[in-house]
Amino acid sequence: RPFHIFFGRDDLSRLLPPRMVLVGLGVDPAAERMARFISAGPVDISIATFHGFQRDGERLLARQLEMDPERQPNVRPREPSVAEKRRILQEYLAGNGYDAVFWPVHADLRQPLSEQRVWEQPGSTGVGFQLTEPDNPRVWKTYFGVQAGYLGSGIYSVSILRQAIHWGGEEALGELRESVEVRDWPHGGYALSFESSEEWEQLRPKVLDFVHTVMANRLGRDETNGTGEPLGSPPT
Length: 236
Fold this sequence. Notes:
Shape: elongated
Oligomer: single chain
């Protein structure tokens, strides 16, 4: 199976920034130019060279390590791992008093998606729910999201992205828009907002009706893409 199924999609971030050690018997001009070129980028490179000598019948091997301790590699800050993003999000929600409303809404949206494999992508103010495409199990797209504070302090939002609109259909979307006030979402699609659990309870039935319609329409397609193999895991 793919590496990320066993070890997670973000494990390799622990290995950044990359470091390289060039080892050889002496350094010719071409190797030195290559090392200098690579070191100008985000790679921390050192050169270890070995030199052989013969003295008084003895063979000696000298090692020389060439590196610039003053050099600060031009390395971009490491992207936080998914686990770190989740922790940061939890701290943000708890620190701003959002968690009591956010997590029940999150659970309401997550439950209808459990019929199919879903990936939760944490962000700075919320979570996006990603699903694979029925005709291409290697492609993951965001369908829905739930946010706290993204549209303003004390405001919660549920986003409905383009792919959910595609699978929901114009009729279901029209029914949702007739019963719920929605706004354009900056990342495409629509969003609805509310400020309390009581407001969400009023919006909840219509929103979940639309979610169920999306999922039912998706289930009408071949979820194995004709291969008999289950859907894949999120890309690394």
